[in-house]
């Protein structure tokens, strides 16, 4: 045992002392640094607080903070509207029309369409078919969009548009037979058009397509059949006067006393009082 202790003391004695020029000892670098004085710690804390306050003020000035974006610090939406971060206040909301439509636009479109119909009837009656065909095409496109939004019904738009034009243009030379033949072919085309989409929603989509084909183009074809007789101009003008009177009466009655909606899901502004006025 004494021999082992002597050998250990010899090995320890062989380790050279640390050289002051070589820097601190590696073991001493692992020891924690001495804490700064209390006064220095307070000064650093105050500096950090001033830096955080300056950053928050810069965010607020640039409109990137929560309050500048229209969301207060408590997470609730701001009371004032307008464009977030722009400093603009929301103006008064526009009052919606009680009839559910843009009245100036509706009157303008009606006047233009009526003028085109009267000009075509007084010059070349065959042009009346073109006016009817264009109006039916636009109406079919809009009606299919309504069915998609309200009832999630996908109308076979191309067969209905093409078949609708066929109904109108064939009604002039062939009368009812031409319009009904085109309608039957349109229904068959809608059945085939929807087949690749699968069985889910097939009946709903086909029913909507057939309804769209009957509601607009087929009825429009009967309007086209009013022109060929010798008194066709008088028939069309009588029909237009009746339509305008019906629409105007329904509008006035609905605005003044409409309180019972007919179909709130499809057309919330249409009322039974307006229907009676029509």
Automatic annotation (TrEMBL):
One of its GO terms (molecular function) is phosphatidate cytidylyltransferase activity. Residues 45-60 have a biased composition (Low complexity). GO terms for cellular component: plasma membrane. It comes from the Bacteria. Pfam families: CTP_transf_1 (PF01148). The chain crosses the membrane at residues 103-120, 126-143, 155-172, 178-196, 208-227, 233-256. Pathway: Phospholipid metabolism; CDP-diacylglycerol biosynthesis; CDP-diacylglycerol from sn-glycerol 3-phosphate: step 3/3; Lipid metabolism. Residues 1-13 have a biased composition (Basic and acidic residues). It catalyses: a 1,2-diacyl-sn-glycero-3-phosphate + CTP + H(+) = a CDP-1,2-diacyl-sn-glycerol + diphosphate. It is found in: Cell membrane. Keywords: Cell membrane, Lipid biosynthesis, Lipid metabolism, Membrane, Nucleotidyltransferase, Phospholipid biosynthesis, Phospholipid metabolism, Transferase, Transmembrane, Transmembrane helix. Its EC number is 2.7.7.41. GO terms for biological process: CDP-diacylglycerol biosynthetic process. It is a multi-pass membrane protein. The keyword Zinc-finger does not apply. Its main location: membrane. Residues 1-97 are annotated as: Disordered. Belongs to the CDS family. This is Phosphatidate cytidylyltransferase. It comes from Amycolatopsis echigonensis. The lineage of its organism: Bacteria, Bacillati, Actinomycetota, Actinomycetes, Pseudonocardiales.
């Amino acid at each position: 045992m004494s021999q082992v202790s002597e050998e250990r003391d010899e090995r320890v004695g062989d380790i050279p002392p640390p050289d002051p020029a070589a820097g601190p000892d590696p073991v001493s670098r692992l020891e924690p640094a001495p804490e700064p004085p209390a006064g220095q710690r307070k000064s650093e804390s105050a500096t950090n607080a001033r830096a955080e306050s300056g950053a928050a003020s810069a965010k607020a000035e640039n409109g990137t903070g929560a309050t500048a974006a229209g969301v207060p610090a408590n997470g609730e939406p701001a009371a004032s509207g307008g464009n977030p971060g722009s400093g603009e206040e929301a103006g008064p909301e526009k009052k919606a029309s009680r009839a559910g439509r843009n009245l100036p636009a509706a009157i303008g479109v009606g006047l233009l369409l009526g003028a085109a119909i009267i000009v075509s009837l007084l010059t070349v009656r065959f042009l009346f078919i073109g006016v009817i065909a264009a109006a039916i095409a636009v109406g079919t496109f809009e009606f299919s969009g309504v069915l998609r939004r309200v009832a999630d019904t996908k109308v076979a738009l191309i067969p209905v548009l093409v078949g609708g034009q066929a109904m109108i243009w064939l009604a002039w030379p062939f009368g009812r037979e031409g319009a009904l033949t085109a309608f039957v072919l349109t229904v068959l085309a809608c059945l085939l058009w929807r087949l690749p989409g699968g069985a889910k929603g097939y009946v709903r989509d086909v029913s909507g397509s057939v309804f769209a084909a009957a509601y607009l183009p087929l009825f429009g074809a009967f309007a086209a059949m009013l022109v060929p007789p010798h008194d066709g101009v008088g028939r069309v003008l009588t029909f237009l006067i009746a339509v305008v009177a019906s629409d105007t009466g329904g509008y006035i009655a609905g605005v003044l006393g409409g309180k019972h909606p007919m179909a709130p899901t499809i057309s919330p502004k249409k009322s039974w009082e307006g229907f009676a006025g029509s």
